[in-house]
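Hi V.,

You were right to ask for the full record rather than a summary. Here it is.
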Amino acid sequence: MTKEIVNAYLSEERVVTENSDAARELYNQARYGKITKDNSVQLSLIEAFYLNEKQRIVVLDKKGKAVPAETFMKKASRKEPGFWVRYSVYKDIRDRGYIIKTALKFGADFRIYDRGVKPGEDHARWIVYPVYEAEKLTWYEFAAKNRVAHSTKKRLLIGVVDDEGDVSYWECRWLRP
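Predicted structure:
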């Protein structure tokens, strides 16, 4: 069975799908975006870029014309600093079969749920901070990230993205000696 491609419309900082069963199925099956008052699905730029790349949605501009991936990436990068690094981690986690959502209320980039767990059914297991391999992270910044993970009862993942977009993960936890 082929999946129906959903039309989605690019606004400044988000993408909103058409009001359709296929759009709501994106949310129901894998928790992409969130359901709006008019029953369409509001996607983050990262979610939309991923779904567009996977040919599950087609991103349209205000005139109804398809937005090329390169143009979308440029617009998203202007709106969200570090978009490519964050997207690389998001894509890698989704491709591994996990649900990954924003974690702004926790002071992190993303939260990740165990395979088979949907948000609302249980808590996320990890929070993840994407970083580019050439970036420097001070011990103070690292400790702050680790403290956020500990205080929210989640494990800390640092997703390190190299020049090719490959991601390596470092998991960190508080230990009592």
